[in-house]
Write a structure and sequence with these properties.
Chain lengths: 376, 92
């Protein structure tokens, strides 16, 4: 009847299990999304960008399993653009690990979808940023990609996989939130997740150009999604705001969708060139690259990388700013350490969204140790 | 817990109720925080040294529809957890 929202003390005493590896399989992408936090290069036939070598991928998976890894995430760039994607998916079928795929859906042919569906424990999310081609393609930068993404979703559903639709909220598409839920219903999606544009790489530019909703607007949209829209659909709706802004019933209740906790204590990233990284942020911040899979053993990287040791030792007590005053910090871990570091070059900086909300006096008062008038 | 006991909530803890009838219970000294569902909040508010589990259950049945059969077991478990963490106790 009560849920502990603080970190389990035992986590700090030993090296946590490496639960999942995020594979950023391709350095290029077939779309040019204006909000992408990784800013991969648009790949055309003329120029091919690096992709993760299949043998290296296999070696990392094998090493990861020895460390207790139970899941892999295939992302990019665009993972389905990897030239060996079929081989890679076939290999994973026998590995007894959960497989998460983040795709834009464009290359999800019936054959690929069938292959994906052969994995026993698979979760696929497809990015859709508009319910029509005009909005979606103005965000994703390539003509024709809307219908291709819709067809990709249909192929997944036909193969027996109900994917999650991910919509990133911007000024130009925020009026289509409910329409996206209805589209998801019609297509047979499993759920719809609403993300904020993170102020990283291309997303940073969008923030600077005021193309994203304000924090206040995002809070209001979140309330409407979680308190109204979620009760008006059979689909699960996930609103990706920090735990402090979400109703407790939606975080911990029977119909809840859980916390958006930064999984950094159990996750490692592998970039397309084979580098180990804190999530995928190493592609933008070179000091968050920890070594290379062709020369460094995974167990050594996982157990001995200084920044990872610092994070394990300091999380969450070293977090600063509003995170240091937030009662939800143990369920959130500052939302995204990679983003926080990118923005400030301080791993213990607060999450931008919470920081701004606090400065504007709209941080939820019930989630602070001491209410804001006392802190100020 | 003692079946006939009438536990008291630790007065040093803070309960913050929210719009959906859930609440955060936290220790302002340590920052340890717990999310309580509406039934837990109902129970917490009756840990005043005057209510036994039977008293709480009786009020719960009067206040709520469809109280599940295992409710008393869950309430006792919840109070036991509070006692174990020092979030509640008995007056001596």
């Amino acid at each position: 009847m009560a849920w502990n929202v603080k970190q389990d003390e035992s986590l700090k005493k030993e090296i946590p299990t490496l639960n999942q590896i995020y594979f950023y399989l391709t350095e290029g992408c077939n779309l040019a999304c204006r909000h992408c936090w990784l800013a991969p290069k648009l790949q055309k036939k003329k120029h091919q960008y690096p992709v993760l070598d299949f043998d290296l991928f296999r070696s990392i998976v094998e090493q990861g399993k020895k460390l207790g890894m139970t899941g892999v995430k295939l992302t990019g760039g665009e993972p389905l653009m990897h030239p060996d994607i079929e081989q890679l998916l076939k290999y994973l079928i026998d590995q007894d690990v959960s497989v998460t795929i983040e795709t834009n859906g464009v290359l999800c042919t019936p054959e690929v979808a069938m292959l994906v569906a052969k994995n026993k424990n698979v979760f696929v999310s497809v990015s859709l940023d508009g319910t029509d081609s005009r909005i979606h393609e103005s965000i994703r930068g390539v003509k024709g990609c809307f219908e291709e993404a819709i067809q990709g979703i249909r192929n997944l559903v036909n193969a027996g996989i109900a994917p999650q639709i991910i919509m990133t909220l911007m000024r130009r598409n925020k009026h289509q939130i409910e329409a996206m839920v209805r589209l998801g219903e019609r297509l047979g999606a499993h759920s719809v997740k609403f993300n904020m544009v993170q102020p990283t790489e291309r997303g940073k530019k969008m923030h600077e150009l005021d193309e994203t909703p304000s924090v206040k607007e995002l809070i209001e949209i979140g309330k409407w999604v979680e308190e109204t829209l979620a009760g008006d659909t059979q689909l699960k709706l996930y609103y990706d705001s920090p735990a402090a802004f979400r109703p407790l019933s939606r975080l911990y209740g029977q119909e809840g969708t859980g916390c958006n906790v930064c999984g950094i204590l159990g996750i490692l990233g592998v970039l397309a060139d084979g580098s180990y990284s804190l999530c995928g942020i190493g592609s933008a911040v070179s000091e968050l690259v920890f070594g290379h899979a062709s020369r460094d053993r995974l167990d050594k990287v996982w157990k001995e990388t200084k920044i990872l040791e610092e994070i394990r030792e300091g999380m969450p007590k070293k977090l600063t700013g509003v995170c240091a005053s937030c009662l939800m910090v143990g369920s959130c871990f500052a939302s995204c350490l990679a983003q926080n570091y990118y923005r400030t070059r301080n791993i213990w900086a607060p999450f931008w969204f919470c920081d701004l909300a606090f400065q504007e006096g709209i941080f939820p008062q019930t989630r602070l140790y001491k209410k804001q008038q006392i802190l100020a | 817990m003692k079946e006939t006991g009438k536990p008291t909530a630790n007065p040093m803890l803070v309960l913050r109720e929210e719009f959906d009838d859930w609440a955060i219970l936290f220790d302002p000294d340590t920052g340890d925080a717990h999310a309580l569902n509406p039934i837990s909040v109902f129970v917490w508010k009756r840990l005043d040294g005057h209510h036994s589990v039977d008293d709480i259950m009786s009020e719960l049945v009067k206040s709520c529809d469809d109280v599940p059969e295992n409710a008393q077991t869950e309430v006792i478990k919840f109070i036991d957890e509070l006692l174990e963490q020092g979030y509640a106790g008995y007056e001596i």
